């Protein structure tokens, strides 16, 4: 199915995926307010603009109070859930700060509309199991850790030798054992990647009983070493959009009741990418909360959209995009995936 190019076949897959998301998850689209609170990173992923070796990036770390205030803005605006994302750091100072922020947000976001406070997703990289446990105990109940590619060869072309696929896999195991709702995902269009590998990635999500998927096309950042020499994958340009939408649609058809994000990277390759993502089975949107002056420093890839939009602008723009595809923005709910809820209460 990933190789589909025929217009009618593509339309058929799109309609099946759209039917599946509405049938399994409902018409609602859930927001996760995305706070990219630091670009300081100790990893050196070959594709990523904020990799450790990119000395051209000015590093930042938001103040804890600033992060809490942004989260509370989400709560006041009915978002229900947030994602705290950053570069990867393992030091105790960083971990303690994440834990303090989670606790403060949890406590201060309780209201009549959100009796259990905001739903918090963490996306702060690889950690030992006991650290994940501390983060969970602090009140974060979801964790996103993209596996990037489940194919060892491709993973190794994307990462230096000291970053191991097996270690990232083990983190996913621990997150599940602790009780997090677990999110993962991959990038597509990596040099050497094939359709078969992407099909295996989808089967991996299924085998690992994953609750949430965030994935998108690889977009080149010129200050990074991962090549994009035109021999990349079997696709380019419009084909990358087609492949991205097929990945979402087929993941929806295979996994059925999980949450799938229409990502910013998708909007980068197609101005209507997020709407199309929703029509192909996505049900999650992550509006940016990162203060505009810091966004330019959190450039994972070039041409990242919405660089100058304030959080109010993001809110109204996305609301319009969601209504344009006849879906409804959920208000004041965590929007946990049906898949995770069924595991908890079969
Ligand atoms: N360090 C955190 C957050 C990483 S940023 C963690 O790994 O959990 C979130 C995601 O952005 C990454 O997992 C990666 O899949 C994606 N990303 C990074 N560079 C990219 C690029 N050049 N093109 C597209 N997506 C990219």
Q: Overview of this structure, please?
A:
The chain has 346 residues and is α/β, with parallel strands linked by helices. About 2% of the residues have low confidence. The structure holds S-adenosyl-L-homocysteine. The site of S-adenosyl-L-homocysteine (SAH) has 18 residues, from loops.
Layout of secondary structure:
Elements (H helix, E strand, L loop, with lengths): L6 H19 L2 E4 L1 E6 L25 H13 L4 E6 L5 H17 L10 E5 L5 H10 L3 E3 L7 H7 L6 H14 L2 E4 L2 E2 L6 H13 L4 E2 L2 E2 L20 H18 L3 E2 L3 H6 L3 H7 L4 E2 L6 H4 L15 H14 L3 E2 L8 H7 L2
Parallel strand pairs: 1-11, 1-12, 2-3, 3-4, 4-5, 5-6, 6-8, 7-9, 8-10
Helix pairs in contact: 1-8, 2-3, 3-4, 4-6, 7-8
Comma- or semicolon-separated keywords:
single chain, 7-stranded parallel sheet, globular, binds S-adenosyl-L-homocysteine, 3-stranded parallel sheet, alpha/beta
Number of strands: 12
Bound molecules: S-adenosyl-L-homocysteine
> Mind describing the biggest β-sheet?
7 strands, parallel
What percentage of the residues does DSSP assign to strands (E)?
5-15%
> Given the structure, what is the number of helices?
13
Helix/strand/pairing class, anyone?
alpha/beta
The helix content is 40-55%
The gross shape turns out to be globular
| Low-pLDDT residue intervals, each spanning 5 or more residues | 230-235
**What is the rounded Rg?**
19 Å
Distance between the termini: 31 Å
Average predicted local confidence, pLDDT: 94
What is the string of SSEs from the N terminus onward? HEEHEHEHEHHEEHEEHEHHEHHEH
Q: Order of strands across the widest beta sheet? A: 2-3-4-5-6-8-10
């Amino acid at each position: 199915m990933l190789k589909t190019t025929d217009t009618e076949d593509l339309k058929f897959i799109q309609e099946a995926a759209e039917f599946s998301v509405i049938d399994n998850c409902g018409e609602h689209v859930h927001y996760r307010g995305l706070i990219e609170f630091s670009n300081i990173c100790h990893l050196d992923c070959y594709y990523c603009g904020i990799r450790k070796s990119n000395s051209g990036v000015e590093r930042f770390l938001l103040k804890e109070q600033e992060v809490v205030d942004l989260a509370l803005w989400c709560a006041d605006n009915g978002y229900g859930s947030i994602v705290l994302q950053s570069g990867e750091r393992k030091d105790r100072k960083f971990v303690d700060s994440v834990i303090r922020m989670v606790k403060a947000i949890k406590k201060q976001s309780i209201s009549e509309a959100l009796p259990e406070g905001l739903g918090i997703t963490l996306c702060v990289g690889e950690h030992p199991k006991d650290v994940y446990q501390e983060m969970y105990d602090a009140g974060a109940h979801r964790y996103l850790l993209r596996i990037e590619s489940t194919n060892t060869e491709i993973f190794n072309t994307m990462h230096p030798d000291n970053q191991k696929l097996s270690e990232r896999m083990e983190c996913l195991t621990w997150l599940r054992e602790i009780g997090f709702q677990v999110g993962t995902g991959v990038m597509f269009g990596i040099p050497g990647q094939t359709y078969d590998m992407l099909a295996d990635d989808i089967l991996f999500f299924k085998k690992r009983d994953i609750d949430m998927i965030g994935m998108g096309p690889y977009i080149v950042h010129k200050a990074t070493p991962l090549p994009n020499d035109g021999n990349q994958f079997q696709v380019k340009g419009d084909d990358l959009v087609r492949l991205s939408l097929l990945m979402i649609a087929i993941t929806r058809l295979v996994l059925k009741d999980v949450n799938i994000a229409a990502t910013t990277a998708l909007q980068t390759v197609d101005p209507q990418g997020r709407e199309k993502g929703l029509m192909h089975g996505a049900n999650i949107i992550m509006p940016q909360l990162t203060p505009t002056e810091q966004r330019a420093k959190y450039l994972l890839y070039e041409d990242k959209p919405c660089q100058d939009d304030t959080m109010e602008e993001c809110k109204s723009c996305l609301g319009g995009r969601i209504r344009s595809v006849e879906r409804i923005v959920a208000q004041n709910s965590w929007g946990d995936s049906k898949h995770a809820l069924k595991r908890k209460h079969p």
